[in-house]
Amino acid sequence: MTTGRELGKTRLPLWAAGFVILTCFAILGLSAWREWETRNADLKNAEIDVANLAHSLIQHADDTFELVDTILVGLVHRLEIDGTGPDTITKLQAYLPTRKSSDRIRGIFVYDASGQWLATTERLDFSKLNNSDREYFQRHRDSPEMGTLIGPPVKSRAGGQWVVTASRRINDADGGFAGVALLTIDVGYFVKFYERFDIGTNGSASLLNDSGIMLARSRDDSGAFVGRDLSNAPLFKGWESRPAAAVYYFKSPLDGVQRLSYYQRSSRYPLMVLASKSRDDVLAPWRQAAAARTTFVLGLVLLIAVIGFYLVRQLVQRQRTAQALVVNEANFRLLAEQSSDMVTRIGLDNRLLYVSPSCVRITGWSSDELLSTSALAGIHADDMERVEQAIAALKNGEAEETRFVYRHRHRDKGEIWAEAALHVTLASDSGEIDGVVAVVRDITEQKGLQDKLASLATTDGLTGLVNRRAFDERLAEEWARARRDGTQLSLLLIDVDHFKKFNDQYGHLAGDGCLRALGRILSTHTKRQADVAARYGGEEFAVLLPNTGPEGCAEVGEGIRKALHDLAMPHAQSPPSRLVTASVGGATSLPSQTTADCSTLVGAADRALYAAKDNGRDRLVMSGQVVPWPARSA
To answer: Angle CA(377)–CA(381)–CA(387) in degrees, nearest 5?
Structure first.
């Protein structure tokens, strides 16, 4: 008859197995819940980001059209008081350019009651031009309303580009229709402004009117999306009942991308902005991290399951412990013999007690040649101290296992990179530490790939120079070093003159070639190891010159400018030389004598760069100079 105690022992393996299964399912459930919460948190953070972006964009749009509205009101008021006689128009033609003080405004136009052009800021013969066929003109002619009308985008008759129109009716003294005053905003202005924001590879920022007409969209330099009617899109269905601003998930009718967005309607104008991020872009980091975490959790669960399996098995086979130890030892040797990694046993005196056959591939020496030799032989001198300390910590009981990467001498290949995983071994009779087991793997190829990836992460793919992120880090480091050492730090900012026109005329492939050529020049003129040449953004480059005064900075900057000029790349739209040229701004600082950070040096160089552009381009201006150094030769 089986007693209760014996029955409990019989069921113990079942209870242990149940506990292991319950633990595995609990870990999987908690992991799934955590990943779902992390996903929702990432989406929520992205919603906050696009909401903040939408607030900024609608404020920018309101400010832009408020400026336009102010100019239109003043212009119409002046015309209604002074009339549209020849003397008034002559004065107006001279007056209009003074109102075009902002880069937000493309052009200002005045038409008479028949649509004939009376005055404009555009430099063209408009004596025979007539705009009576435009929708905004007909709206003002047929309606007595005096407010500003923001129209759909149209192709400009003055320049041929897409523009957004804002217009007001002009009345004569009797209140009759006397013409139209019109301001245009280049759609490209909004596109360029939206490029300042990081919205991801597939994100977008759009400006629409309340009728669902696309006025401007990011990454739309060709104007492919301008004027699209999206009034049938789900966003505009039931538009009147929607709140003025809200998060909105949708599939874009323009490119079919699933997007997370935030729309914001203007409280002052019939406009709205839509700031969007691709949902795949938002969730990509989470998916990558979730895959890694899930792999880890599955590995952990598998490990727990395996451990549980062996635990149950050990409970059943407790009487076979001694035999299992022998089997385990045999299994160890079998695994070591078959493993592609080199497995070794190291005694307390650092002598090799066992070496697996893979040692020939890892070190070039056979196991017979390595037995009884020092385990530290062949380790690079620079890594020796670190390896000795790790092994000593294991033998002293300070740690049970460790892992490190080091350089090792190969008999035929020279120096290789190796990764070692070490674990202490215990004597079976006393339980005292009697040595170390080391598993060594050749990771030379993997290390090379890691170094290459690290280099790619800090290098601009087009020019081969340092990228913006790496440059900012080096600038902060050199600023701190110059502050400690009391040395000077110089910075050059270089901008290719009229580069957009060069791209438009010769194409983007030629533009890329131009930037690569300038990159080679910068590499040639930054010969010191501490000098840093970087692509700062677009056609703008930067050169950091540690321990360099203003004279040395000016010498390097002028050398770069002259080298590009001497390269004589044709650029028909870059007068007067008709060559590709660059404007250069330089600045020097002594960080130890200021409490400011490195942004002051960047700001000084940037102001010098703009001074070089304002003085005619193709020249160098040092920060604080009134006259360029030296002035460009005729």
So the answer is: 70
